[in-house]
Amino acid sequence: MDFAVYVTGQGESWTYPDFRDAFVEAERLGFHAGWTMDNNVGSSVSTRERPVFDTWTVLPAIAEATSKIRLGPLVTPVGRRPFALFAKTTSIFDRISDGRLDLGIGAGDHADYFEPWGQPYPEGKVRVEQLREQIEVLKLMWSEDRADYEGKYVTLRGAINEPKPVQKPHPPIWIGLTRSRTRMPRLAARYADGINIYLPEPKDREMLEIFERCCEEIGRDPGEVRRSRNLIVAVTDRQIDLVEVIRSEANEGVGDFESMLPNITDYENPIIGPAEHCIEQIRLRGEGFDQVIVNSPGLDYEDRLYTTTPEGTRHAMRRFAEEVMPAFR
């Protein structure tokens, strides 16, 4: 099992140097990969107005500041960028990073990330169909001298994409599996080099089983596909109830409890406590996964119970790397 960090860098307290330095620090600490979100606005209903960085603008700069850590979005949703242009963008990023792109893609998760920007957000079935075409276009333009493609949503006529990515046959495609229990697992079984599951127990195991059945239906060995999962993990000297912390923050006017709670209870089910507790829980919940992607809020840092400041994030990353990661080497 390897470990990755998930850093969003959203909010007034984050400058670009802070965002870059979080990934530089993650590389120094020995994390295998660094992921970030690809949203135009804040990641919950109560934080839409928070400043956020454009993923494909800052990732190349982060690649220039690092040399080993793998980098990518988790995830770039279909419809955010034109298919052929996205093939060009990812090709050049793989060149800039010297073959360190892990491409996380998905079908999108909320209309708020699209419609205010004048981008359509069709029903889920359509978005999955579009994602299939996007993947096929990416693979063609990453490999063919001239790409021809006739799809329902995009047509290519001798499309040229040079230079090609460094990685052969192409950069790994990681498909996010969160909501759909049929169409997305089937798509991933056919096209994914890796999958990312962002669900608490027991939904995470159920999704793995669905994915494996989809692989078996088409004769693919599910063991060919790398598996990652997201976990909120915070190493602290005492047990902390994150739900109560967020409630307290909301009472102080920091965020909205009702909109933030589902992120904690429905998806993340955080692991918080001393290193021994975190190690035990990661062994249990990381079983069957090749990569654990760690989102580490700064809990019990300085005089605050909860912080997502750059300093708090780096502090949390260091504690995880120094007190938890050695147990898995």
Protein topology:
Blueprint: E1 2-6, H1 16-29, E2 33-36, H2 55-65, E3 70-73, E4 76-77, H3 83-96, E5 103-106, H4 124-143, E6 147-150, E7 155-159, E8 173-177, H5 183-191, E9 194-197, H6 203-217, E10 226-235, H7 242-251, H8 257-268, E11 271-273, H9 275-285, E12 291-295, E13 298-301, E14 304-307, H10 310-323
Parallel strand pairs: 1-2, 1-12, 2-3, 4-5, 5-8, 8-9, 9-10, 10-11, 10-12
Antiparallel strand pairs: 6-7, 13-14
Helix pairs in contact: 1-2, 1-10, 3-4, 4-5, 5-6, 7-8
Spell out the helices and strands N to C: EHEHEEHEHEEEHEHEHHEHEEEH
Known CATH architecture: Alpha-Beta Barrel
Low-confidence stretches are: none
What oligomeric assembly is this protein in? single chain
- Rg, alpha carbons: 19 Å
- Hey, roughly how much beta strand do the residues contain? 15-25%
Percentage of residues in helical conformation: 25-40%
Number of separate domains? 1
| First-residue to last-residue Cα separation | 9 Å
What's the tally of helices?
Answer: 10
Strand element count: 14
CATH class placement: Alpha Beta
Quick one: CATH superfamily?
A: Luciferase-like domain
User: Could you say what the CATH topology is called?
Assistant: TIM Barrel
Instruction: Give a short account of the largest sheet.
Output: 10 strands, parallel
What structural class do the secondary elements suggest? alpha/beta
Mean pLDDT: 90
